[in-house]
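Throughout our pipeline, every protein is held as a single compact record rather than as scattered files. The remainder of this section carries one protein's record, kept here as part of the documentation.

===
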Amino acid sequence: MNDLMTNIEELRRKYYAVYNILNEVYGQPVWESVGDPLDVLVGTILSQATSDINSERAMAKLQARYPDWYSVMDAPPEDVVDAIRSSGLANIKGPRIQNTLRYIYRERGELALNFLADLSPAEALNWLTKIDGVGPKTASIVLLFSLGRNAFPVDTHVHRVTGRVGLIPPRMSAEKAHVFLAELGTPDTYYPFHMNLIRHGREICHARGPECEICPINQLCDYYHNVFLPAHEA
């Protein structure tokens, strides 16, 4: 137990060390709601396995074709699929969006998610993840980006960077990393750290060919010491 607590405290110190350096390098992002939680939920479903440009184009076309989410819910499935085709995997995402809307309407009697603001973060996350096809990442994005709730979304960039640095255990899934990272830091760090980890993953800690030699957090990074340096010293 003592060894576990010591390790957690070491990880917590690393968490804040990395957090502070990235804030210095990229600036500290300030939270601002990106929109209505239901809009964000649908937009996040559309963003799965595609680029921001493609998902935004699909969202714009969907909202231009239908006046509200009730109309989307009741529309012929093939029409919804056609509207979101630019997002990719439209045959999967179309039914998923309509089933999500039906679930919300069935449970709440209306198509609105603002009530999540009145639940605890854990309750809100649990409610959202009961929807088929809505996992911890999608739910966390809705809670953090729309409502400013205490949630730590873990996308591919966040998962890759925190894994390489050593903030999460080796082979920990993104699903489990949501809770693990949230427990390392305080809620006020979630949004800026999430945003800066994404930026760092896009600009320096690439999936292939990470630029370790210019990385501002390389001295704190397990990958730098255990993989990059040995390969370049050989």
User: Anything to note?
Assistant: The chain has a mean pLDDT of 95.
